[in-house]
Each structure stands twice: as C-alpha cells, then as structure tokens.
Amino acid sequence: MAEQKPLPGRVHHTRRPAPRPPRSPNDIYVTTKTDFRAQLARCRQLLSTGDFRELRVHGLGLAIGRAINLALQLQLSYPGTLHISPNTSTVELTDDLEPEGGEDMEPGARNRNNSAIHIRVYRPQGE
Amino acid sequence: MENFRRVQTVDEDDGQPLPFKNLHPDVVKMRVKEGSKIRNLIGYAATHMLSEGTGQIVFSAYGRGVTKAVTCVEILKRKIDGLHQVTKLQYKTLQEVWEQKGPNVQHPAPCLTVQKKYPSINILLSKEPLDPQEEGYQPPQSMVPTETAKRFSESDIEHCTSKKRKNKSKTEESEG
C-alpha cells in the first residue's frame, strides 16, 4: 500500500455498483433500499400470472436477510405450493481509490469480497 | 413502546432438530450471532473440519446474524476444498416478554408477551457427499487457484480473519 501518513493522507474511495448479470423479469434483486412491500407485491403478481414457474431472488451483503424474508413471505402467501432452494456465493466488488490533494495522483482500485444469496423460489413440476 | 422494556426472550424452537436429513449424530452446531467474531468462528470450525472424524458442521443464524453466517461458510469453503453444502431457510419464532416501566407502575408490573418471527438460515457443510436432489444443495466448487484462495494449513488458523487476509503474499505451493 501507499506510505502510511497520518490522517490527512487518508484515501477516499467510491464503491462501484455490484455486478449484475443479465437479468430476466424473474430475477429479483433485493437491496436495502428497495421497498419491501412493493417488491413482495411484484413477486406475487409475477407468480400469480403464471408466466413464470420460478423466481430468482438475489441479495448481497446486508440485504441477505431481506432476501430471505422476501422468499419466506412468498412461500407463506402460497402455502404448500412453493419450494425454496437457496444458494450462497461470493461476489467480488471493486472500490475506486481517490487520493486527496492531487500531488501523488494514483487512482487505484481495491478488490474485496462480499457474500451473496440466490434463492430459487419455484413451483415443483407436475402441479 | 418507550414505556416498556424487554425482560426475557424465550427461544421457542430451542431443542428442535435441525432441518436436515441424515445428520451425523455428533455434528457441530455453530450459533452465529451479530457480534460473533469471524476469526473465532472460522478458527473453531476449521479445526473441527480438519480433524479426523465426521466432517459435518452446521452454521445457524437468525435476524442480523445471517450475513455473518453466510460469510463464514463462504470463507470456510474457500479454505477447505471439496465441501458439500445444503442451505435451508425458515422462520425462527422468539417469544419476548416486555414489562412496563416508568414512574407510575402498579405492582406487579403488567407484562406483554410478543411473538416475533425472524428470518433464519441453517447451512450444513459436509466432507461426505450429500443428496444432490435436496433443496438448497450446492456441490463443491472447483476452485481456481488464485492468490486469495490459499490452501489452508493448521498454522493459518490463528491468523484467520476475513479482512486482514494477505492479498499480496504469493502462495508457495505450486498447484497442478
């Protein structure tokens, strides 16, 4: 890393948005800022129109709990007919470092990992 | 609400079996909470998994601890290759007793009993193969040997943290 200066040399960084693979209408990305009830209603609508047998609910980091809650609430609203199959993974995130001051401009990047959950909510075959 | 304080929480699901089939009788259950330190959890779990024996471990958490439980599992999978995983979600019911407080409280103080449902997660990691048809099953991932995916050895257990992992240090083991 760079020279260890005291506080003034602290590196500010911005976080790049998390990578999202190409999404279809049945991919639901839960974040801490999405409105929970609206998203639940949207999921119910998607399932009740019958266009999709399967939804995929994704949650990253702090939103894992919300994603679990969403999937379980969906299961509660269709009792007995929905199955849940969760998977976990690690997502690599990139931070852009912005050195302050401008003398030693070294715009760098830093990688870190975050946990994610992908929940497949589906109707089993033959129903 | 501000005139009440929580005096007791009872775990209603306590004592119920874990939601997995064909569990080994002496499987270790890690109760991950919000304030648990990842290095403590991983340190214990890794020694258990590396020791001879069952090779099964369950991470369970509810509420705000779920993120940490998932992180622990992801780190452990990266440290130890060839782990099979089954993830289960459910609601965990907690019963909370709230007691009135404040200047004018009759004796005995009136109590409120509340049932709360927290989203919870249970993750089973196993060295032995599990049923691939089960919901939430994940096969072991074939790890691409990168700098961060360092093979885990006994000496690493003490230094194991999620954030302080040495990214720069090259692994000396030559793989494949």
From TrEMBL, chain A:
Chief location category: cytoplasm
Disordered, as annotated region: 1-29, 87-114
- Biased composition range(s): Acidic residues: 93-106
Q: What UniProt keywords apply to this chain's record, in alphabetical order?
A: Cytoplasm, Nucleus, rRNA processing, tRNA processing
Q: Which InterPro entries match?
A: Alba-like_dom_sf (IPR036882), Pop7/Rpp20 (IPR014612)
SUPFAM superfamilies this protein is in?
Answer: AlbA-like
Keyword hit for Protein biosynthesis: no
Any one of the GO CC terms: nucleus
Write out the GO MF terms. nucleic acid binding; ribonuclease P activity
Q: Where in the cell is it found?
A: Cytoplasmic granule; Nucleus, Nucleolus
GO BP term (any one) = tRNA 5'-leader removal
Q: Name one Pfam family in it.
A: Rpp20
Its biological purpose: Component of ribonuclease P, a ribonucleoprotein complex that generates mature tRNA molecules by cleaving their 5'-ends. Also a component of the MRP ribonuclease complex, which cleaves pre-rRNA sequences.
Family per UniProt? Belongs to the histone-like Alba family.
Whom does it interact with, and what assembly results?
A: Component of nuclear RNase P and RNase MRP complexes. RNase P consists of a catalytic RNA moiety and 10 different protein chains; POP1, POP4, POP5, POP7, RPP14, RPP21, RPP25, RPP30, RPP38 and RPP40. Within the RNase P complex, POP1, POP7 and RPP25 form the 'finger' subcomplex, POP5, RPP14, RPP40 and homodimeric RPP30 form the 'palm' subcomplex, and RPP21, POP4 and RPP38 form the 'wrist' subcomplex. All subunits of the RNase P complex interact with the catalytic RNA. Several subunits of RNase P are also part of the RNase MRP complex.
Identification of the protein by name: Ribonuclease P protein subunit p20
Which lineage ranks, top first, belong to the organism behind this chain? Eukaryota, Metazoa, Chordata, Craniata, Vertebrata
From TrEMBL, chain B:
Q: Where in the cell is it found?
A: Nucleus
Reading the lineage from the top rank, the first entry is Eukaryota
Please report the stretch or stretches of sequence annotated as the DNA/RNA-binding protein Alba-like domain.
30-92
- Renumbered to this chain, the Basic and acidic residues biased-composition regions fall at 148-161
Chain intervals for the UniProt region annotation (Disordered): 129-176
User: GO terms for CC?
Assistant: nucleus; ribonuclease MRP complex
One GO process term, biological-process aspect: tRNA 5'-leader removal
Q: Which Pfam families match?
A: Alba (PF01918)
Query: Do you know which SUPFAM superfamilies this protein is assigned to?
Result: AlbA-like
Q: Which GO terms describe its molecular function?
A: RNA binding
Q: Which UniProt keywords apply?
A: Nucleus
What the entry lists under InterPro entries is as follows:
Alba-like_dom_sf, Alba-like_NAB, DNA/RNA-bd_Alba-like
Q: Write out the similarity annotation.
A: Belongs to the histone-like Alba family.
Q: What is this protein called?
A: DNA/RNA-binding protein Alba-like domain-containing protein
Q: What is the lineage of its organism?
A: Eukaryota, Metazoa, Chordata, Craniata, Vertebrata
